[in-house]
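[Discussion] Sanity-checking designs against the backbone

I'm trying to build intuition for which residues belong where. Below is a structure token string of 182 positions. I'd appreciate it if someone posts a full sequence so I can compare it with mine line by line.
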């Protein structure tokens, strides 16, 4: 082999190695947050990132001011070049309600997952959220607290249809604070 070819292959191998090391050392959370900020929605705050597996994640975020606050989610897939936003949605919080909700169909964006239902908890008395499907299955949603006094909830399913579900916000003593039928 010629000396030039050996040098060329060595440099190529080093560059490929540096590329993969750089990819492995990237901060996944910061990369996803940076992508959320790039949406150019005013006062964006990524409140939680749920990693479904090593290659799929959901970022929950809010944006806007207190009078016009929006809550939403961004769906991410990890590619060879890093995390890619594949879909996002948000909606304005409706004052007067105690429990906000939104739905996303995941089956076209994330493998193995079909539905996401999520929302912000607007009444501090709500400490549990349940979701009952049209098929009669009942799930306890995951609650996330952030910024000391804010909470949101979400449920991700693998095959369970959440369209038409009944969402119930419960107090610590089991009293129904808000119930929403889609």
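Best answer:
Here's mine. Compare freely.
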């Amino acid at each position: 082999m010629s000396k030039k070819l050996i040098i060329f292959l060595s440099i190529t191998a080093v560059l490929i190695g540096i590329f993969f090391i750089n990819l492995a050392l990237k901060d996944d959370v910061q990369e996803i947050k940076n992508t959320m900020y790039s949406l150019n929605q005013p006062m964006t705050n990524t409140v939680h990132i749920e990693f479904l597996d090593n290659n799929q994640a959901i970022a929950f975020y809010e944006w806007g001011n207190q009078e016009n606050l929006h809550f939403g989610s961004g769906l991410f897939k990890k590619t060879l070049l890093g995390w890619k936003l594949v879909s996002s949605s948000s909606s304005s919080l409706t004052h007067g309600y105690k429990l906000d909700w939104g739905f996303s169909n995941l089956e076209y964006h994330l493998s193995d997952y079909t539905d996401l239902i999520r929302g912000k908890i607007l009444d501090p008395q709500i400490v549990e959220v349940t979701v009952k499907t049209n098929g009669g299955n009942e799930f306890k949603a995951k609650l996330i607290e952030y910024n000391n006094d804010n909470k949101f909830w979400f449920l991700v399913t693998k095959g369970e249809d959440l369209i038409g579900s009944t969402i119930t916000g419960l107090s610590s003593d089991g009293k129904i604070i808000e119930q929403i039928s889609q």
